[in-house]
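Collaborator request log, item 7. Partner lab (contact: R.S.) asked for a structural prediction of 6,7-dimethyl-8-ribityllumazine synthase to inform their binding assays.
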Amino acid sequence: MSDFKLDFSKTEYKGGKIAIVHARFNQPIINMMIDGVEQKLAELGVPAENVERFDVAGAYELPYATQQVAMNGGYDAVIAIGVVIRGDTPHFDYVCAESSRGLMDVSIKHNLPVIFGILTVNTDEQAEERANPNKMNKGGEAAATAIEMINLTRNLAN
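Returned to partner:
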């Protein structure tokens, strides 16, 4: 595990709507990720009415749902949240590769920040450590990244 920690101390919310599209599979860990996202968004001053949540079965469905949100929602960024834990079959590799590629495709196609908040881990313990808002808080990182990308997009448009 890396000791590197992103510095979001200068991240400032300047407006924008955010969609959280999350999987339901591995729900307890997903809940921690969503808690981290929502806590960080609130900490950064994002009004609750500017955040909307959508859920799908698993990580593999995230790209399609994210594309639907991108086409129909008027959002400034989408945070995709999922958890894929390695098992005994190649399923992990397929789901991780395709969900990752699919989310990037949506971002490029729709010129919209799509934040990759899918944990791809080997064990339940790794997932819990990364998802827990009091530990690595990857959900919080995804939220702050969304704000930074909204700001970047707006700054470049001016």
